[in-house]
Amino acid sequence: MGVGPRYDSGAGSAGGGRDGGGRGGGAGDDAEALLRARLRLADGQIETPPGLWDRIRVSGTAPAPAVVALPRRRPYAVALVVAAAVAVVALGVWWLVRPGPVTLRPAGPPPTVKVTVYNSEQACRTGRSLECALRLARDPRAEYAARGNSAGRVWHGDDLAAHCVVTDGRMVRDEAGVTSTRWYLVTSGQGVRGWLPGVRTRNTREVPECPAGQE
What we know:
Layout: H1 9-15, H2 25-45, H3 52-60, H4 75-97, E1 113-116, E2 134-136, E3 152-154, E4 159-166, E5 172-173, E6 179-180, E7 183-187, E8 193-197
Antiparallel strand pairs: 1-4, 2-3, 4-7, 5-6, 7-8
């Protein structure tokens, strides 16, 4: 951009423009004054864009942006989360303290009651002769002295394991005249299993009745 007429050294000499120190002071001042004038002219030519102030006023009065509230968690949703957490913790505790494998053992034989053989004949209360032996029957409802109704022999004072009793067996009378229809299903110390007439013991302990089909 031009800043006015160019002043060279010749013009300065012709016009006597040098000061006493030999510097050209007049040319510098004129250039500065011309530059200031041109800046003022340029500033005056700057125009405000049309509608600028209206847009500023509109933006200043615009409503504030709406704040969207986040949805609140419902109580039942929180309860479900808590319940699930408790279930997970309980499952973990159970896994840590879970019992070992359970072994099912077969049930043992039912308990028995001890009964003692009793012989009403005084002379047969000692010794183990055949004449003093007492019979264990195979069938409590058959004739006691029948040939085929013998399961084994016992003697006075023998301890037997009574499993159960029937109360409607064949009636038996002993040598003293005592009668009974009770028969005990017993096992002897030698493993002999049979039926002992009630008159051949003086049992004072309760023995369970035999279930149907075990007679």
